[in-house]
């Protein structure tokens, strides 16, 4: 008996251990998140089959035309040694109809990526969605170069223009894996409503009968190598699906193959259309008109040919049209289906009013992504275009053009001045620009196309960056990074005109995207107005907050009461709450991992964690059915979820690297799930196309059966799952509330939704049903007005910097204003009566007081203006009764102009200055009670063409010299001079074009001078040699040289070089001891310097001077005997001679000491005068000197210094030949011997004078 009992105990414990081991192996999971970048429209890409190459995309709701990417693993993937299978933790992807994480600004985005301008809410391309993955270990680079817009619109709302947009995406595999790899503790994911989640697709469920869905599979034969796909399903009661598959070559960075497929039966079968579009045609993009989805446009690869293929019948037939330019981005008109703007690679904007069949140039030098269609009811004409054009570096201009006539006469300038480049945003009723004022960027706004005014922020808000988030409901929401913030932004909200902003939420998490764009953790819930989620930084922790009244009040999210296994969750606020990932912040390419839908109000699905802060570990999937009041955990592993049946049902697909054949359906908002098989063979899932039709229940799953198979398109028809069309009995109501408070934003709102587990088909008009009733106003319906801050007790009191008595800007334009009570009702709030009158502003008559806050600046935002050009002065008045305040502008040149009121100068005041100078401009605003005056000093300049530096080429060391400049033109206005000497890094700055300088070191020195006038800088440079002693002589040239003098420095340098070479050749003097400088001006003169030898000469200064005197005599003798000459051009021989003309003094004579050179010159003049007197008196002839008197009237008097005659030795003997008997030729043919100065003999013969 004991033995039998022991035997039973042994069997019992053996089975228990075996079950425990099996449960551990099957239940243990290890997940990792991989992020695939996506633009607004994803790209389906063939998956790698090696687990190391996997790229797992985030997931979420698929709207009518949305594809959601998956990642597959190797068919042979096995559990690891620890018994854990590798799974993929998927992130939810926001649908088009939901408002995902807000990316307000996408700077520098390549236009080839059809992105929403973060500020303007307009798409730049319109074609179907595209998913990208990786067909190799390196992720696929995309034509859009990785530039994405995270949100369907920059402001968090869906825009109809976005339909049909296309985006390519790029992935960095290694970074994504490293950023998001994590290990989840083993969880045996028990089934929901009594079922257990599948740990593997082949696990059998003893308690669950496998259900099958109606499906069909079609293989895209011949496209095995293609690794990208674009799909379009119009959904307008149409069964047509278009699919463009491409092979993207990662090495060349371009598409090398393409195939176009078309289905007319909701995807059951497809026809290949390559023959219709041309067998050799390579297609790169697919575009669809957002206003008529029967109109299709295909763009060919510009590397092969630049053309468009246009279809007007949903892709059945095509017409080919050649293009004269390469398209970078497209912008479709919001109402006119045939109107398209096309931006080219060379910054030109074209327009077509025939859906691309013909194009016309609108304007060149257009800033990328800064062009907008006009809006009917706001702009004067429907066919207008708003443009930002490039004027010069750092300056742009905002203009408007007529559709087909953008000539200068038809251009409008809504803002008269220049703006900061890439700052124009036209969005709804608002136009935003940035203007440079005083070296700072000032944000301006125009409401309903009226005059521009500065956006007024709370005082001491000093923004480093400002992004426009939303312009919904006639209200501007901005994100501002204040001076002390680095990784967070503050949210501000305006009144209707976008002028005055109040704080909405502080320290919102931000992250940098590609190309420097900014992404803000702010999510607007679809289907219910005023509900937002945001991640906020508090004490170095990131926490998720929710608001139901558009930012007036925020609170933490309540954590689920139980987990997926039904265990109680202990989580007490504020120490613990639910935190959601509103976007994958570590990877800017991924879409948001939170989803909601207009047709399913109140349902939000998101990934997140429960705890003290938001983390990336142990992420689960949560769902709420009551707009965020209560949450349930529905998955502890990652699944992709889609809305089906107009939001009445949910579809979940496991996010796994293994092939799958099952999906899960829920008919009770995720509380229970049913398992269905959709294919007989396991499929590696690449992407999903959700239901696009009005009433269709069709979904298409894209994938591969193996890594070498073609694309497999599995069409799933859910019609068989549903039993009947919905009736009123199938619906129930639920009331929106905020922790029990049903009056939200002044209204009680009641919605209809399907009852749990009702399997009926909804029609399009059944999900809109909503009932509302207004509530009496309370203090909770009012937010604090500009200048007021909310206290702990809820009251709004003035900030310390605010002066409540300051009147509104309305008084500048009208005679009455709304005097604030410190409160303002939210623009979306619909409360009535109650405390409405108590908190509402009261209209009062504008008080009569002296004007204040007058501002004056130029339209360019600078203090420099060009001569003879229009200068536009802008005048703004902060406070004052505009109708009673006159404005006078004095231009400082003797002219002034007066205006009766401020409204007369909306377009600015223009003036032209005819003379350069600094002008003192003033503006005065005055009325009977006083005045305000503002001053501006304007530098009027003209273009500086040239600066010339004048200085002696050789100077005496330690003696001051004068450096002078000559400007052309001479009068250019205020000039700043920058002087650099040798290699010094800091210049000497003067306002005068002359300066005195002393060189203390012997040798050659470089002098550089720059003249700065306005934005123009000109420069000249020369070399100055400094020595202890030297000799110099002034040279003259044959008079006809003046006629050939062009007056440029290069010509003077060439003449100096030729003259020097001639002197060296004739005299034999070392070239290093000669320096010739041709002086500027006429008559043409030059100066020859005889320099000391480089080797120190033995002897005293007397011997050194004697040596230079000897060289000087040799040189003068050659000059006076006409031996120094050169050929200017054939037949033109120029003689060089010595003259006593002196250049302008360049040596500073302010020194009290006497110059030895000056003393010698003085003595020489006295001696020469005495000699002349003796010659005249005694008429004696002195050898070597010719005396000319008035008896020789046929020749001008010349004074020739004492010279010597040069004798040249005969090459055949020692006999010397006198120069007056030998014809000396200076060319190389006639000169066989060049004498050195040691061969020179003195002669009494007089020189020849010509």
TrEMBL record:
Transmembrane annotation, as ranges: 1158-1176
GO biological process: post-Golgi vesicle-mediated transport
Start-end of Low complexity biased regions: 134-143
Principal localisation: membrane
Membrane topology, as annotated: Single-pass type I membrane protein
Source organism of this protein record: Champsocephalus esox
UniProt xrefs under Pfam families: PKD, Sortilin-Vps10, Sortilin_C
UniProt KW keywords: Glycoprotein, Membrane, Repeat, Signal, Transmembrane, Transmembrane helix
Domain of life: Eukaryota
Region (Disordered), start-end ranges: 70-168
Compositionally biased spans, kind Basic and acidic residues: 155-168
InterPro entries: Ig-like_fold, PKD_dom, PKD_dom_sf, Sortilin_C, Sortilin_N, VPS10, VPS10-sortilin, WD40/YVTN_repeat-like_dom_sf
Comp. bias intervals (Polar residues): 144-154
Domain PKD, chain residue ranges per copy: 874-930
Subcellular location: Membrane
Protein name in UniProt: PKD domain-containing protein
Record family assignment: Belongs to the VPS10-related sortilin family. SORCS subfamily.
CDD domains cross-referenced by the UniProt entry: PKD
């Amino acid at each position: 008996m004991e033995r039998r009992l022991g035997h039973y105990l042994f069997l019992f414990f053996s089975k228990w251990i075996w079950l425990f081991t099996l449960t551990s192996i099957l239940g243990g999971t290890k997940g990792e998140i991989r992020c695939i970048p996506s633009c607004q429209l994803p790209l389906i890409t063939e998956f790698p089959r090696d687990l190391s190459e996997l790229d797992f995309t985030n997931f979420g709701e698929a709207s009518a035309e949305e594809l959601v990417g998956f990642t597959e693993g190797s068919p042979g993937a096995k559990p690891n040694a620890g018994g854990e299978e590798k799974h993929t933790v998927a992130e939810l992807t926001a649908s088009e109809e939901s408002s995902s994480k807000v990316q307000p600004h996408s700077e520098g985005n390549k236009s080839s990526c059809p992105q929403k301008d973060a500020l303007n809410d307009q798409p730049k391309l319109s074609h179907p969605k595209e998913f990208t993955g990786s067909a190799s270990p390196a992720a696929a680079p995309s034509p859009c170069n990785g530039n994405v817009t995270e949100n369907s619109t920059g402001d968090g709302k869906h825009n109809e223009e976005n339909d049909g947009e296309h985006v390519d995406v790029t992935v960095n595999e290694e970074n994504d894996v490293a950023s998001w790899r994590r290990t989840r503790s083993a969880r045996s994911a028990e089934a929901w409503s009594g079922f257990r989640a599948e740990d593997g697709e082949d696990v059998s469920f003893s308690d669950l009968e496998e259900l099958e869905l109606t499906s069909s599979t079609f293989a895209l034969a011949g496209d095995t190598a293609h690794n990208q796909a674009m799909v379009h399903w119009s959904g307008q009661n149409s069964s047509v699906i278009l699919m463009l598959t491409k092979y993207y070559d990662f090495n060349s960075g371009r598409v090398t193959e393409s195939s176009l497929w078309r289905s007319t039966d909701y995807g059951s079968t497809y026809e290949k259309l390559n023959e219709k579009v041309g067998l050799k045609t390579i297609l790169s993009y697919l575009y669809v008109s957002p206003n008529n989805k029967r109109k299709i446009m295909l763009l060919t690869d510009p590397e092969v040919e630049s053309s468009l293929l246009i279809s007007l019948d949903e892709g059945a037939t095509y017409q080919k049209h050649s293009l004269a330019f390469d398209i970078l981005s497209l912008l479709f008109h919001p109402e006119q289906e045939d109107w398209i703007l096309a931006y080219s690679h060379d910054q030109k904007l074209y327009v077509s009013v025939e859906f691309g069949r013909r194009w016309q140039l609108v304007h060149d030098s257009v800033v990328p992504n800064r062009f907008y269609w006009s809006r009917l009811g706001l702009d004067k004409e429907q066919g207008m275009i708003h443009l930002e054009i490039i004027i010069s570096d750092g300056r742009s201009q905002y203009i408007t053009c007529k559709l087909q006539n953008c000539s200068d006469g038809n251009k409008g300038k809504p803002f008269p001045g220049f703006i900061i480049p890439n700052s124009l945003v036209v969005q709804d009723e608002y136009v935003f620009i940035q203007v440079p004022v005083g070296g700072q960027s000032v944000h301006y706004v125009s409401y309903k196309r009226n005059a521009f005014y500065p956006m007024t922020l709370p005082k001491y808000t000093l923004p480093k960056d400002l992004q426009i988030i939303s312009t919904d409901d006639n209200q501007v929401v901005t994100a501002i990074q204040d001076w002390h913030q680095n990784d967070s932004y503050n949210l501000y909200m305006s009144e209707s005109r976008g002028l005055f902003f109040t704080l909405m939420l502080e320290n919102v998490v931000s992250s940098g995207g590609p190309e420097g764009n900014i992404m803000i953790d702010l999510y607007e819930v679809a289907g219910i107005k005023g509900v937002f989620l945001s991640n906020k930084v508090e004490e170095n922790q990131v926490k998720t907050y929710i608001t139901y009244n558009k930012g007036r009040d925020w609170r933490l999210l309540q954590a689920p009461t139980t987990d997926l296994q039904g265990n109680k969750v202990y989580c007490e606020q504020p120490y613990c709450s639910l935190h959601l990932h509103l976007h994958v912040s570590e990877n800017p390419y991924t879409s948001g991992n939170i989803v909601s839908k207009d047709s399913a109000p109140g349902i939000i699905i998101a990934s997140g964690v429960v705890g003290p802060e938001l983390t990336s570990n142990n992420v689960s999937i949560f769902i709420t059915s009551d707009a965020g009041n209560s949450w349930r955990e529905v998955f502890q592993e990652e699944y992709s979820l889609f809305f089906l049946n107009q939001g009445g049902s949910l579809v979940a697909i496991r996010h796994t690297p293994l092939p799958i054949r099952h999906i899960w359906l829920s008919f009770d908002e995720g509380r229970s799930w049913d398992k269905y098989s959709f294919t007989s063979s396991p499929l590696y899932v690449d992407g999903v196309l959700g239901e696009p039709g009005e009433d269709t229940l069709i979904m298409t799953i894209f994938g591969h059966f193996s890594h070498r198979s073609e694309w497999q398109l599995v069409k799933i028809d859910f019609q068989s799952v549903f039993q009947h069309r919905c009736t009123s009995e199938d619906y129930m109501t639920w009331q929106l509330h905020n922790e029990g408070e049903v009056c939200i934003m002044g209204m009680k709102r009641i919605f209809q939704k399907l009852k749990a587990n009702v399997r009926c088909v909804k029609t399009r008009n059944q999900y809109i049903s909503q009932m509302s009733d207004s509530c009496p106003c309370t203090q909770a319906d009012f937010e604090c007005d500009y200048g007021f801050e909310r206290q702990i007790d809820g009251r709004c009191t003035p900030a310390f910097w605010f002066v409540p008595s300051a009147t509104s800007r309305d008084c500048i334009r009208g005679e009455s204003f709304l005097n604030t009570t410190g409160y303002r009702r939210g623009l979306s709030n619909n409360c009535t009566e109650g405390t409405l009158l108590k908190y509402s502003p009261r209209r009062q008559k504008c008080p009569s007081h002296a004007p204040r806050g007058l501002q004056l600046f130029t339209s360019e935002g600078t203090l420099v203006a060009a001569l003879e050009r229009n200068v536009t002065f802008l005048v703004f008045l902060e406070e004052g009764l505009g109708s009673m305040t006159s404005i006078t502008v004095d231009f400082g040149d003797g002219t002034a102009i007066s205006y009766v009121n401020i409204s007369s100068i909306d377009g600015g005041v223009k003036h032209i200055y005819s003379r350069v100078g600094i002008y003192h401009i003033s503006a005065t605003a005055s009325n009977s009670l006083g005045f305000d005056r503002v001053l501006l000093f304007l530098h009027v300049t003209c273009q500086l063409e040239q600066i010339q530096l004048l200085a002696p080429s050789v100077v005496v060391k330690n003696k001051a010299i004068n450096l002078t400049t000559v400007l052309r033109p001479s009068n250019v206005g205020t000039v700043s001079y920058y002087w650099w000497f040798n290699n010094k890094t800091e210049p000497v700055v003067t306002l005068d074009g002359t300066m005195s300088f002393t060189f203390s070191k012997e040798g050659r020195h470089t002098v550089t001078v720059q003249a700065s006038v306005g934005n123009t800088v000109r420069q000249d440079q020369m070399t100055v040699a400094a020595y202890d002693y030297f000799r110099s002589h002034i040279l003259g040239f044959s008079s006809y040289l003046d006629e050939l003098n062009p007056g440029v420095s290069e010509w003077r340098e060439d003449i100096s070089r030729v003259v020097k070479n001639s002197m060296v050749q004739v005299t034999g003097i070392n070239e290093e001891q000669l320096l010739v400088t041709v002086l500027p001006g006429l008559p043409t003169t030059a100066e020859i310097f005889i320099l000391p030898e480089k080797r120190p000469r033995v002897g005293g200064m007397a011997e050194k001077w004697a040596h230079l005197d000897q060289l000087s005599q040799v040189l003068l003798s050659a000059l006076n005997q006409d031996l120094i000459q050169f050929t200017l051009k054939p037949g033109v021989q120029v003689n060089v001679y010595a003259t006593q003309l002196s250049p302008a003094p360049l040596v500073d004579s302010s020194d009290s000491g006497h110059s030895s050179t000056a003393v010698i010159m003085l003595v020489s003049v006295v001696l020469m005068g005495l000699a002349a007197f003796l010659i005249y008196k005694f008429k004696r002839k002195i050898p070597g000197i010719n005396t000319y008197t008035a008896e020789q009237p046929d020749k001008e008097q010349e004074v020739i210094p004492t010279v010597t005659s040069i004798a040249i030795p005969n090459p055949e003997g020692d006999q010397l030949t006198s120069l007056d008997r030998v014809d000396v030729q200076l060319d190389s043919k006639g000169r066989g011997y060049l004498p050195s100065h040691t061969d020179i003999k003195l002669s009494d013969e007089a020189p020849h004078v010509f």
